[in-house]
Specification:
- The chain is mostly helical.
- 82% of the residues lie in helices and 0% in strands.
- Helix 1 (2-25) packs antiparallel against helix 4 (51-84).
Length: 85
């Protein structure tokens, strides 16, 4: 049961970190402008291209990286705390 929690925790760390990096970087790339959302919806186009929206997504990315690092620290404390016993 413990190894399953560790594997699941490690998967959370990897997923949250990768998602965070994606959300920080991708909204500022040129590929963002090539999305289908601005083409099909003029109303959403203003929001989609807004720097505030892109910044909000980057902020969510930072939050994901924080969660990943906090979980990594928790996993390491748990692993080394058990080894000391």
């Amino acid at each position: 049961m413990r190894w399953q929690r560790r594997v699941l925790g490690f998967c959370l760390v990897v997923f949250a970190f990768e998602l965070g990096m994606f959300l920080i970087v991708f909204p500022w790339l040129q590929n963002w402008d090539l999305s289908w959302i601005p083409v099909h919806s003029p109303r959403l186009s203003e929001i989609w291209m807004s720097r505030y929206f892109r910044g909000a997504l980057s902020g969510l990315g930072l939050l994901n990286i924080y969660v990943a690092l906090a979980e990594l620290v928790r996993q390491l404390k748990s692993m080394f705390g058990e080894a000391a016993k």
